[in-house]
Amino acid sequence: MSFFRLKDFIRAVRVCKTAADERNVIQRESAAIRTSFKEVDSHDARYVNIQKLLYIYLLGFPVQFGQLECLKLAASARFSDKRVGYLGVTLLLDEKQEILTLLTNSLKTDMNSADDYVVGLALCTLANVASAAVANDLVDEVERLLGSARSYVRKKAALAAVRVVRREPELATAFVSRARTLLGDKHHGVQLAATALVGELCMHSQDALDEARRLVPVIVRQLRALLGGASAEHDVGGVNDPFLQAALLRLLCVVARGSQDAADEANDVLTQVATQTDGAKNVGMAILYECAVTALGIPSAAALRVLAINLLGTFLANRDNNVRYVALATLSAAVITEAPAVQRHRATVVRCMRDADVSIRRRALDLSFALINGQNVESMVADILRVLPHADAEFRSSMVYRLAAAITLFGDSLDWRAERMLRVLSLGGAYVNNRDLFKFLRMVAEADEPLQRRTVRTCFALLERDISQDKMVVAGVWLIGEYADLLRPLAAGAAAAVASPGLGADDLDILGALGRPVATQPSSAAAAQPISIDDELPQATPEPADIVRLLAAVARSPLVSRTSRHMALTALAKLSGRFSAQPPIVAAIRDALAAHCRSMDAETQARAAEFDTLLGRELDSVRAAVVERMPPPEYTDVPYEEYVLNPTAMRMKALTVIRRPALQPDDLLSSAAGSAAAAAKAAETAKQSVVSDLLNLMDDAPPADAAPTSPMSPPGAASSPAALADLFAASSLSPTTTAGNPAFSQEYQVYSAAGLRITLKPSKKPSLPAVVDLLATFYNEGDTAVEDLNFLVAVPKSQKLQILPPSAQTITCGSTVTQLVRISNPSKTPIRLRMKLAYSADGHSHNNMFDYAGFPDSVC
Predict the structure, then answer these.
(1) 529: pLDDT strictly greater than 90
(2) Gap between the Cα atoms of 712 and 213, Å rounded
(3) Rounded to whole angstroms, how far apart are CA atoms 356 and 320?
(4) DSSP string computed for 470-514
(5) In this predicted model, what pLDDT tens digit does every residue of 814-836 receive, in sequence order?
(6) Angstrom distance (rounded) from CA 92 to CA 95
(7) Which residue, 835, 776, 836, is CA-closest to 811?
(8) Helix, strand or coil for residue 33?
């Protein structure tokens, strides 16, 4: 049975009681529609059938057989048919289908119609499904309609132009000349469409971006008009057309990014928006948020950037979770360049870590770690440690890892680092990775004896309370096995001799305590209570029998991992050397080991048997050497990732990579022979942010034979889009010497060894003042040919690099080879190079890495 009307068909579907009944109704109707398409050539029947097909499509059933019928209906002369036909085309077709080319003629015809609504239908369809081929065919029609006298058509044409530029970026130049007129239009709908078009043009064309920067006064004028006027037609919650305001602010951020002049023009209007917009409602907060993001995304004035941070800080006290979420995310990115301003809101951020919403807690944790620096590391680590026991399980691994990174990077005192790492191990030992555990054990092994004594006594006390934290058990058992002799009580006169200057009266009392009773069994995980961050860590001075009893309990406990049990057995064997003068203790150790000689685990049984044999009388002569204290382990330290404390900055760094030149940090590379005070200042600056401490390749230590290097510079401002375009512009690759500057008339020798000498000759082009060309010349002054030449260069992050291929990869004796290195340096920071040279000569491979920072300041 076929339903003639759409209403009847919908009613039949809705009365179905099961999914099978619904499928049967739709299958019967689909078959009837397919038959009607073949037998009936009527616009009325096609009109109804397409409507029913669209309803079937919305229910999730296949209707591809109706695509061609949609094209036929769109070609109808009646407006009602066109409306349904174009709707079907928009839903059932996409740009990848070849059948879409059949629509080009209908679209072109309708774009030339005298009826604005027919033109609007064609433009809407073009804006939704246009392919590259259709965009090329209809670009002239769209450009013509941008100049229409009717605002309705201009608005639709601008949106269609966005689709054309998105599919064919080469056509962007066709719409650049219309941008000023559209942005200055009095109709708000046209202005809104124009902002989308100009933003799309800037993304695909550098010429369009340069032209758009000349439109900043127009954007500023339109924003002022919206702030100063009132329109009942566009009023939303007391704000005049917030959608257009937000769009203009986003466009201003795009066109003013990287342009000092554009940012200066925008400063006043951004301040006006920030101070005159009422943030009591969501609509006002949306405008304030866009204003803050724009102020942070362009090289705006320092006062405006602080105002933007304060606006985001007020969002943190809002009840709406969405408002707090976007504020936390944006502040996490802004903290890289505006750390002092963000630090003022630290207390509010800490409170957000205990919020009921999980997404707020996650963002607050990210921002809290990003706020850590050398000045506040103690208080921030303490705040995060208070949250750690109550944090979600999914957060703890990341929290523990970043806590260890913060303690390692910013902790000045070994005592403080050891104490905080013990708290991390006791609260989140199950989530500590092996690298951080190994760093902690090495730090303790290299420390002085008082610190070792305090650490091992604290470990013993913590293991008495709880052995559920696996890495805490590993660290404690290892330290007890190595430094068990430091657990024994000191004589009254020796306590003062070993106490470090940081110990107080309470610590001396603990160190001098004798015969304090010790629990014979470790407490269970359920009974253990986490130690408050405000409380002192406990310390214990157990007797040897208590030490053996604790390790034996760990070795047989089901709460610990297999690795921890094995380490406990090893620690028991180590105790035989520490307490060799006490036969009852050695006998107790052998009894504890013998209990595992019949273990069901083969590895455990083998270890216990071997250690039991080691404690036998026949090996008395070698036992002391086997169980003696191990020296500090040697290893190659792996630095933490660049964004370890602020992963949000990696995802959102585009918001805050622009700074005004006046706000640049002090130059740390101004002189290769800097004074000791300058070096101290550089070290202090490096502690302000982990981002400044890591420069990827540039922070690797050079080899012993490398050339002298100057102190490392923190990353400066990122280059502007214009500078990047200049860097990679399709221009002549041969350098042009700058006349009148002696720094550009000489060659600088950067390498000379084994008959191979390298010089660099700088040059600049007047049209590209931010780009320095370095012509590298390789002189083969040896007796053998140089083959497989490979020359790599790295620069600091404030600069961008392009390395062109060498003129040849083989240098015969007495000949030369050249290679051009192009550096974009918009921030005018000193040029520092780290170079890696690889080549083959006389059957041997050579690899050298060396630095050079000897260029005069005028070369920058």
Answers:
(1) no
(2) 35
(3) 12
(4) HHHHHHHHHHHHHHGGGGSPPPTTTHHHH--TT--HHHHHHHT--
(5) 889 899 888 888 878 888 888 88
(6) 11
(7) 776
(8) helix
Query: Which residues are CB-neighbours of 305 under 8 A, at least 6 positions away?
Result: 295, 296, 337, 338, 341
Instruction: Locate 179 and state its tokens.
Output: 């941008």
Give me 612's structure tokens: 């039991």
> How are beta strands 786-794 and 833-841 bridged, if at all?
antiparallel
Residue 363, SS3? Answer: helix
Task: Give the HSE-up count for residue 641: Cα atoms under 13 Å, Cβ half-sphere.
Answer: 10
Identify the helix (H) or strand (E) that includes residue 790. strand 786-794
Residue 581, token pair as written in the block: 């003068």
The CA distance from 616 to 797, in Å, is: 62
pLDDT digits (tens, 9 = 90+) for 283-299: 999 999 999 999 998 99
Listed in sequence order, the residues at least 6 apart from 352 whose beta carbon sits closer than 8 Å to its beta carbon are 316, 324, 328, 360, 361, 363, 364
Q: What is the arithmetic mean of pLDDT over 482-490?
A: 81
What are the strands, taking DSSP E only, across 612-669?
A: none
**H or E stretch including 839?**
strand 833-841
Q: Which residues pair with 793 in a beta bridge?
A: 835
Q: Give the C-alpha separation, 717 to 724, whole Å.
A: 13
Tokens of 372: 């850590």
The CA-atom distances, in angstroms, between 585 and each of 488, 543, 590 are 13, 10, 9
- Dihedral over alpha carbons 500, 506, 508, 510 (to 10 degrees): -120
Task: Tell me phi and psi for residue 233, to 5 degrees.
Answer: -70, -35
Q: Are 285 and 273 in contact (CB under 8 A)?
A: no
CB-based contacts of 763, cutoff 8 Å, min separation 6 = 735, 736, 737, 738, 744, 772, 773, 774, 775
240 DSSP β-pair partners = 235
Give the residue among 558, 544, 549 at the shortest CA–CA distance from 468.
558
CA 181/CA 3 separation, integer angstroms: 51
Beta-bridged to residue 852, according to DSSP, are 833
What pTM, to 2 d.p., does this model score?
0.66
CB 599 within 8 A of CB 561: no
- Starting from the edge strand earliest in sequence, which strands make up the sheet with 833-841, in order? 786-794, 833-841, 844-852
Q: Are 678 and 667 spatial neighbours (Cβ–Cβ below 8 Å)?
A: no
In Å, the largest CA–CA distance within the chain is 112
3-state secondary structure of 788: strand
Q: Any idea which residue has 């504890």 for tokens?
A: 592
Which residue is listed with tokens 């500023």?
220
Q: Bigger pLDDT: 42 or 775? A: 775
Whether 152 has a pLDDT exceeding 90, the answer reads yes
Task: Give the CA count within 13 Å in the CB-facing half-sphere of 752.
Answer: 6
Q: CA-to-CA distance for 639 and 642, rounded, in angstroms? A: 9
Terminal alpha carbon distance of the chain? 82
Distance, CA of 91 to CA of 84 (rounded, Å): 11
Instruction: Give the C-alpha separation, 483 to 42, whole Å.
Output: 96
> For the chain, what's the residue count?
860
User: Nearest CA to 762 among 774, 780, 745?
Assistant: 774
Cα gap 860→855, rounded to integer Å:
8
Q: In whole angstroms, what separates CA 854 from the centre of its chain?
A: 34
For residues 780 and 814, is the Cβ–Cβ distance under 8 A? yes
The first and second tokens of residue 676, run together, are 């000791």
Checking 752-755 for CB contacts under 8 A at 24+ apart, the result is 753/705, 753/848, 754/782, 754/841, 754/846, 755/780, 755/781, 755/782, 755/783, 755/784, 755/841
If one counts every other C-beta atom within 10 angstroms of the C-beta of residue 61, the result is: 15
How many Cα atoms within 13 Å fall on the side-chain side of residue 7? 0
The CA distance from 592 to 573, in Å, is 10
Within 8 A by CB and 6+ apart from 787, the residues are 809, 810, 839, 840, 841
What single-letter DSSP state applies at residue 170?
A: G
